[in-house]
Amino acid sequence: MVQNSSQEKYYIWRIDGGLGKNIAATALVDTIKKTYSDRKLIIVASHPQIFLNNPNIDRVYSGHTPYFYEDYVENKDIIVCNQEPYHQTGHITKQKHLLENWCDLLGIEYKNQTPKLYFNYAQEKAYAQGSSPKPILLLHTGGGPVNDTVAYNWTRDIPIEFAQEIVKKYQNEYNIVQVTRPNGYKLDGVTVVDKNMTNLNLFSLLRSSSKRILIDSCLQHAATALKLPSTVLWIGTKPELFGYKEHKNIIAELPQRAHQLVDSFLFDYQFQQNEYQCPYREVDEIFSLEILNKL
């Protein structure tokens, strides 16, 4: 921390990563502002629109930061958090939630905070529930990077056969909307959303749903922020690290492994090009049909 005679003090927080990680980060904004109330909070984020309406943030930047060094760093009284919580011991050893690891880096207290999203007047007016002959079941089958080239990524995606059984169970009761990435598999008997959406449209889809079956991706973070309890299916990741108690978390059991982790260093499963790491041989080993009764 550098101090000088400048009257303004800054707390600078840089947040990299995907949409879900940025939504998760909103959980800690209020605590930062309360802990460092004498400082202006400056956010530099990979998804800056998530933070734009937050009343506790003084300025939001994307990767484009002209004159940032001169305005906020050079000879200024600053605190900077530019560290990656995924590299913390507590995350690598699976002993702490993502947000608790971030709190350690940010110098704030962890209190089981949850994400918060704010909408301005125009965004609220743009949100419309629309009409549907049946209530909407939002089924998030595949997430992660939009450039993932595989139709099914075993670490987080819902197994195809199991997802189709979900559709079979609920198709008479709900209008089922499947959300997946562009290259993700498509189910029968559903409305597929597989194109890039604005955050407003994505959140509107969540708010319009009556029931939600999600995976460890951006929508489970957003559902928490919007106070929409959901069912979240977990396979290669854990709710203790990325989830929230507000949801019903259903966890797949990991079978005994052979040599799937031969290339793993500090983390077990990689999220892309990971087919050889899959420890399952049958879909029933991931989620049996008995699990359907819990959804």
Question: Rough shape?
Answer: globular
What is the spatial order of strands in the main beta sheet?
A: 7-6-5-8-9-10
Which architecture of the largest domain would the CATH scheme give at its second level? 3-Layer(aba) Sandwich
How much of the sequence lies in strands comes to 15-25%
CATH class descriptor name of the largest domain: Alpha Beta
Task: Please give the number of β-strands.
Answer: 10
CATH homolog superfamily of the largest domain: Glycogen Phosphorylase B
The largest sheet, given as strand count, sense and whether it forms a barrel, is: 6 strands, parallel
Question: Could you explain how this protein is built, in words?
Answer:
The protein is of the alpha/beta class and 295 residues long. Helices cover 26% and strands 16% of the residues. Strand 5, helix 7 (160-170) and strand 6 form a beta-alpha-beta unit. Helix 1 (19-25) runs parallel beside helix 9 (218-225). The model has no long low-confidence stretch (mean pLDDT 92).
Chain-wise SSE layout:
Blueprint: E1 9-15, H1 19-25, H2 29-35, E2 40-45, E3 59-61, H3 68-73, E4 77-81, H4 89-92, H5 98-106, H6 121-126, E5 136-140, H7 160-170, E6 175-179, E7 191-193, H8 199-208, E8 211-215, H9 218-225, E9 231-234, H10 239-242, E10 248-251, H11 283-286
Parallel strand pairs: 1-2, 1-4, 2-3, 5-6, 5-8, 6-7, 8-9, 9-10
Main attributes of the structure:
single chain; 295 residues; alpha/beta; Hypothetical Protein Ychn, Chain: A; Rossmann fold; 2 domains; six-stranded parallel sheet; four-stranded parallel sheet; globular
